[in-house]
Amino acid sequence: MDTEKEDDKILLERTANSFLCYKQYALDEFWRPRVLKWESLSEHQKRMLPWYESYLKDVRNGIETNSIFYLNLLEQSVEMWGLNTDPRSWPIPSAVDMSKTVSILNQIAREWSSICAEERDKFLPLVREFLEESFPSGRDTVKILIPGAGLCRLAVDMVQLGFNTEANEVSYHMLMVGQFILNSDLQEEGIALHPFVHSFSHHINRAQQLRQIHIPDLNISERVVGENLLSMVSGSFPDIYGPNINIKQSESYSNSAAIREIRAENRNSKDVVVTNFFMDTSSNILDYLETISHVLKDGGYWINFGPFMYHFEQDHQTELTADFDPCTGEVSNELNTPLKGIELSHEDVIQTATTYFPFKPIKQKAGIPSTYGTDVNDISMLGYQCSFWILQKVSIK
After folding, report:
1. CA–CA distance from 125 to each of 129, 272, 387 (Å)?
2. What GO MF terms are annotated (predicted)?
3. Any residues with CB less than 8 A from the CB of 37 and at least 6 apart, and which?
4. Domain boundaries, position 365
């Protein structure tokens, strides 16, 4: 087993362990401190909140319901991902891993529950209208790539329209949960979850925090099984689909001979790239532009929707970057590089894409209000101003 496979196995088993540890983590982080706070009150103050002990039981029950979902996921994932069957051998999850086990429940609500259908429909009708008009027939041969595919709801929506769709995701949390949802023959609304139980602010009433959602909001097996139109690829978007030149080696762009070969094979391989709440996830958005240009066929389309809330804007960490020879892999000019620093605006991206890359604008619109995995009853209701565009890659002769 080479080093890359060993690293992947460690990450996978650490992710699996974070799901296993979810219940204890959530109880310690969200439930137990409130039990202690309640017990610290005077009897006089406790009488003012006669419902609070029952409420704490409901919080615990919600966490336990979520934990059952994760245990069922693990039962399938151990075999599917080839994990060690003894969880005691799994690496200890990090604080970030544990935080993801909490936040991904909101992601599940965002992609697979009816309560976020209105949120998803900010984008889906726009992309559906264009694709149906552009590809009236032969859609099973039209290759769509969705980087940062999350839990694959958009990919399933594309398959339902008849398109050959490839979902790309780098997060093992997303991949493991997404695979479970897609491959477990789940009945429509057959699973109950409490995604909002961990948030104690911005509620009109306690019932909103404690309420259940049910997933999935459609019968996935009836919609995608048998068509052979959906596939999933794990890995960083630039690493798998980018060119072998113009991007520096980094944590998200490696330089092994096998990866270089994959990148070469992916050149001009897709008809459409759909980026949905994705472009601001890079520490260097130019890497994404290089990759989209590389993977699209001449005449292909780049469809984008999302905000510019750059994930690394406040990040003080650095990563090691370097140049490398695309033929030999020989590394040079190693440098500790800040993760933050290249945060382009909507206009910057369009100007760069149409000036330095072979794109021409087809449609664009800015300032579309949208939320992301937000509880519609959250009275703070923080949202985003999203950009939508369609660019076409033109042939350069």
Report:
1. 6, 16, 15
2. carnosine N-methyltransferase activity
3. none
4. 114-393
| pLDDT tens digit sequence for 203-260 | 889 999 999 999 999 999 887 766 689 999 999 999 999 999 999 999 999 999 999 9
Q: What is the CA radius of gyration of the chain?
A: 23
In a domain, residue 12? The reply is: no
Distance CA 335, CA 93 (A): 29
Residue 313 falls inside a structural domain:
yes
Residue 42, both tokens: 């005077």
In a domain, 301, yes or no: yes
Q: Count how many Cα atoms sit within 13 Å of the Cα of residue 380 in the half-sphere of its side chain.
A: 8
- Domain-located, residue 219: yes
pLDDT of residue 1: 36
- Joined together, the tokens standing for residue 9 give 């196995």
SS3 (DSSP) at 113: coil
Q: By three-state DSSP, how is residue 265 classified?
A: helix
Q: How many domains does the chain have?
A: 1
DSSP assignment of 191-206 = EEE-TTTT--SSBSSH
- We report the CATH number of the domain holding residue 145 as 3.40.50.150
DSSP string of 351-363, one letter each residue: HHHHHTSSEEEEE
What does the pLDDT look like over 264-299, one tens digit per residue? 999 999 999 999 999 999 999 999 999 999 999 999
